Amino acid sequence: MTKEIKHNTLEVAQQAFKHLTHGLATGDWNPLLDMLTDDFTFWFPVGPFHGLNVGKERVREFFQYVSETFIGGLTITSVERITSNETTVVFEFCDKGMLQGEPYKNRIAISLDVSGDKICAYREYFGSDGKSN
Q1: Is residue 131 part of a domain?
Q2: Cys staple from 42: which of 9, 15, 122, 130, with CB 3.0 to 4.6 Å?
Q3: Range(s) of the domain holding residue 62
Q4: Cα end-to-end distance, the chain, whole Å
Q5: Which one-letter DSSP state was computed for residue 50?
Q6: Measuring CA to CA, which residue among 48, 40, 92, 89 is closest to residue 66?
Q7: How many domains does one find in the chain?
Q8: How far apart (Å, rounded) are the C-alpha atoms in residues 33 and 63?
Q9: For 28-51, what is each residue's pLDDT tens digit?
Q10: 99 to each of 65, 118, 122, how far by Cα in Å?
Q11: What per-residue confidence (pLDDT) applies to 133?
Q12: Coil, strand or helix: which one is 108?
């Protein structure tokens, strides 16, 4: 793959991450949803969305769940690392907010797969002792 393709992959993923940041903070997920392919898949490690999920309607339900779980939104406090290849970009970041009324902070890694100018897959990994950011 050429550097141009890799550069486009990074640009598309960075735009999607910007929309994700906005959605986490505000609950407005439409800009991100508009960037997803119709056959979009996502993998989440726990809870009612644990495992592989398929389709834009399912991810819409997931984002609604996130907004309801983190009343007041989540703030990304730092981006620790961005790694990319021709089709995938991984963002490692720290976030904080209120989880069902209790202070929350965590370290997260998300992987975004890019197809053209859209995101076709998302995988999320997290885990923290609550003291690491």
Answers
A1: no
A2: 122
A3: 3-126
A4: 36
A5: B
A6: 48
A7: 1
A8: 10
A9: 999 999 999 999 999 999 889 999
A10: 12, 30, 22
A11: 47
A12: strand
Integer Cα distance of 91 and 84 in angstroms: 9
Instruction: Please report whether residue 102 resides in a domain.
Output: yes
In the sheet where 51-54 sits, what is the strand order?
51-54, 36-44, 118-126, 102-115, 88-99, 74-84
Q: What are the beta bridge partners of residue 122? A: 42, 112
| Residue 89 reports pLDDT greater than 60 | yes
Name 108's Cβ contacts closer than 8 Å, sequence gap at least 6: 92, 93, 94, 95, 124, 125, 126
| pTM (predicted TM-score) | 0.89
Residue 24 domain flag: yes
Contact 120, 37 (CB under 8 A): yes
**Dihedral pair phi/psi, residue 28, rounded to 5°:** -90, 100
DSSP3 helix / strand / coil % (the chain, rounded to 5): 35, 45, 20
